[in-house]
Design goal:
- By secondary structure, the protein is mainly alpha-helical.
- 76% of the residues lie in helices and 0% in strands.
- The protein has nine helices and no strands.
- Helix 2 (23-33) runs antiparallel to helix 3, helix 5 packs antiparallel against helix 6 and helix 7 (105-116) runs antiparallel to helix 8.
- It is elongated and about 55 Å long.
- The termini are far apart.
- The relative contact order is 0.08.
């Protein structure tokens, strides 16, 4: 109920003093369960501001922004995080996905090819990388690599 949001904000401010729990993250998860994605985005952003190393919140935020097709923001945030976590494969994936969606295929291909090497024991993420690489290669007319990546999807 929207009428409770001001009270919720007051409670969050009060509870944020507890260092053992990331209150904005828990509120964001609540909104996510209620399918209130705009509110979830706001609180995941607050969660990350409170605990920048909380990668789970960042992953939730990235997926929500992709779902909302906010690709400029996805690319910006993923690129910023890559400066802090240069071996985090999912950041390369999100940056590549965003760049493909923004029709920046050459940049996307480069980011995706760089990041796929960091995927460790995550078949779903690896497949998603190759799907995005197929898109990049197709748009760039690189049919040889497109075929190579399509074969990797089928493995």
């Amino acid at each position: 109920n929207v009428s409770y949001y001001p009270d919720l904000e007051k409670a969050i401010v009060y509870l944020e003093e507890d260092k053992n729990i990331n209150v904005p993250k828990e509120v964001a998860k609540y909104f996510l369960k209620k399918n209130k994605t705009d509110e979830a985005i706001v609180y995941f952003e607050k969660s990350i501001a409170k605990q920048p190393e909380d990668f789970e919140s960042f992953e939730f935020l990235m997926q929500l922004l992709v779902d909302k097709k906010q690709f400029e923001k996805v690319n910006t945030l993923a690129s910023q995080q890559l400066e802090l976590y240069p071996t985090q494969a999912s950041l390369y994936y999100y940056a590549g996905l965003a760049l493909n969606s923004l029709s920046k295929y050459k940049e996307a291909k480069s980011k995706l090819e760089e990041g796929v090497d960091y995927v460790v024991e995550n078949k779903e993420l690896e497949t998603n990388f190759y799907k995005q690489l197929v898109i990049s290669c197709e748009k760039l007319g690189d049919l040889k690599n497109k075929d190579k990546y399509q074969l990797k999807i089928k493995k």
